[in-house]
Amino acid sequence: MTHGIPAQSRHVVTLDLDGVTDKAGLMERCVRALELPEWFGRNWDALADSLTDPSVWPAATGEGGLLVVVTGWRAYARTRPDEWAIAEDVFAQAADRTPALTVALALGGSHQEPSDQPG
After folding, report:
1. Which residue in 43, 48, 69, 90 has the most C-beta neighbors within 10 A?
2. How far apart are CA 76 and CA 61, in angstroms?
3. Cα–Cα distance between 81 and 52 in angstroms, integer?
């Protein structure tokens, strides 16, 4: 849901989790993709705070809001289901509380894994 802001006007950031095997790796990818400051705490609360605080979003975000597209997440979700459940909750709650934020999980398969779709 885009909460009244057209999706096409949002700044798009891809959060690529391909190859991530643990929370530390997830946090490092978030730092790079979201251009988080050095003082970012690299924990779930800090991630939630950063996602809901437009002042720390990438400079290019502007007034249109932010669309975070999470790719390559399935292997991490399989190998660390408890961590992934927390990450999903953080993403969902941040998007629910922040009208200018949308987090979307890309359902496409990784280029390294066979697709589970026919054809």
Report:
1. 90
2. 27
3. 24
Count other C-beta atoms under 10 Å from residue 117's C-beta: 8
Q: Report the alpha-carbon distance of residue 5 to residue 24 in Å, rounded.
A: 32
User: What is the pTM assigned to this prediction?
Assistant: 0.83
What does the alpha-carbon distance between residue 103 and residue 60 come to, in Å, rounded to a whole number?
A: 17
Tally of CB atoms within 10 A around 17: 24
Task: Say how far residue 98 (Cα) sits from the centre of its chain.
Answer: 14
The single-letter code of the amino acid at 8 is Q
pLDDT tens digits, the chain, 119 residues: what are they? 444 555 567 899 999 999 999 999 999 999 999 999 989 999 999 999 999 999 999 988 988 899 999 999 999 999 999 999 999 999 999 999 999 999 999 997 555 444 444 43
Cβ–Cβ < 8 Å for 34, 13: yes
What phi and psi, each to the nearest 5 degrees, are found at residue 48?
Answer: -60, -45
Q: What are phi and psi of 14, to 5 degrees?
A: -95, 125
